[in-house]
Amino acid sequence: MNMAIQIKNLSFFYKERRVIDDLTIEIKTGKFYGIIGPNGCGKTTFVDLITKHKKPVSGNITYKGKDLSLYSKKELSMEIALVPQNFYINFPFTVEEIVMMGRYPYVPRFSAPSQDDYKVVYDIMEKTGIYKFKDRFITELSSGERQRIVFVRALAQDTPVLILDEATSNLDVNYSLNLLNIAAQRVSKEKRTVIAVLQDINLAAIYCDYLLFIKQGSIVAHGNTDEILNRDTLQSVFNVDAKVYFEPYSDSMQVVFKK
Amino acid sequence: MTQILLLSMVLCGLIVISACMGYIHLSFIDVVKIIFAKISGQASLLKGMDEIFPVVVMDVRLPRILTAAVVGGGLAVSGAVFQGILLNPLADPYTLGVSAGAAFGASLAFLFNIVLFDQIGLGACCVPVFAFTGAAGTLFFVIYLSSGSGGLSSNNLILSGIIVAAILSAGISFLKYVADEQVSIIIFWLMGSFASRTWADVFMTSSFLCLGFLIIIFYARDLNLMSLGNRTASSLGVDTGRLTLILLVTASLITAICVSVSGIIGFVGLLVPHMVRFLTGPDNRKLIPVSMLAGAILLLCADTVTRAILPSEIPIGVLTALIGGPFFCYIFRKRQVAEADS
Q: Which one in A244, B126, B144, B299 has a CA-CA gap of 20 to 30 Å to B36?
């Protein structure tokens, strides 16, 4: 099994506060990873570190066996794509222009996009059902629609690794499933890797092969979803009582809570 | 591309037309002949023309006209960059306090000019040098104030800019108070003017603008990605911290050089990129060059109005706001109504 990302003794501080604390994990290619943890546990910082948006204070990250700091920003942008949390876009770009920005790493600075770039962009817009508003302005869309466009933009980046940072948190269930299905297909058919920060544990249980539970900057539990997702884990991570059971309709472990 | 070509032609035409206008009225053909004769060195073209005409065009009008155009272009380009980097359509070239810094420097120069520089013959360039130093100093201080562990954030930059500008404004008020009789010179300078600009001003501003424009247009595509937010831009291969710093410094230095030769001209940097965005869309690869040409055209027209059409010259900063402000209100309102209908 190939390693995509290896993380050793990773730490990161904001001033005195430890946000990521001596974190070690290996991410394998061709798997769908879910990252779960309470608010403020360092999930977003963790994502920023593996996308090289922030530099670790100590420890190291290797991608495909080479230290992350040895990759240029541009090289990395062809390897790892990110769908960030909901972000307002101030300027009236059209939907097509936004999706095309996913191809910028492949288009030389002063050139127009090639036929191939247009094909990738149009195909992915068709597949995700946003083709019909390709000429609308991003500023006129609702936050959910905007989030879909931003997701599709990352898909158009066409990278071996896709990182979702609460990328579906304000999408309705139809579009969440549509986009996560496309991501999951890329994992199962094309052996790509997805790392998804998810708030919805049940959605994570349906899609993820492997779960990482983060609390206070450390991984407190990790393992195959069927094995690790249980009452004790949820109790220790979120401090809540829950019932976890196998649910045949979704063919996955599911969690229910009570008052 | 056609927009850029069209606007360039309009700009060239306006430069010639503006050079015709003034106290001595010249014909279009004569002005073209004079300019062509000077460029190609064919003195024979000037035969039969009053000897004073080439002097009026080349030494009096053109330097002023070209300075106005370059400053207009410079302010509009930096406005577009500031709006893009700070993700704030309300940003303008003066957001980081560059204008207040320049004004403070200039006011100081006006005060000390009288006592220090006249004797050694540096009186003329003293004000622009002080204004530029003030502007650049303010810029770096504001960047220093707002840089922290998380890099330069838009809010921090805007806040630091406002604070520093407020301190400097108080300083300017104090200088005006101390200045006594010189106060009217300071006030007049602050309102902006292109009167008696020289070729030195043209070369200085245009070389800054050309260099700055090349840097900005090189990063124009990265600036597009910044509107998706720092984290996304970073994942698309942009070194966001470095880009922010490079573009802010470049745009501010263009502004500083503009302010130092012309005084403070508001409105152009804020509203030209806005209006151009209605025309070209937000793609900075089109927005920035078109803004530059539109800004040049606008300021050149305004300066021509105050120089040649109005019975007496009024400060250009006042004029740009008086013409441009209502025009923007009109377009803005029209768009609001159109959006409400759709």
A: B299
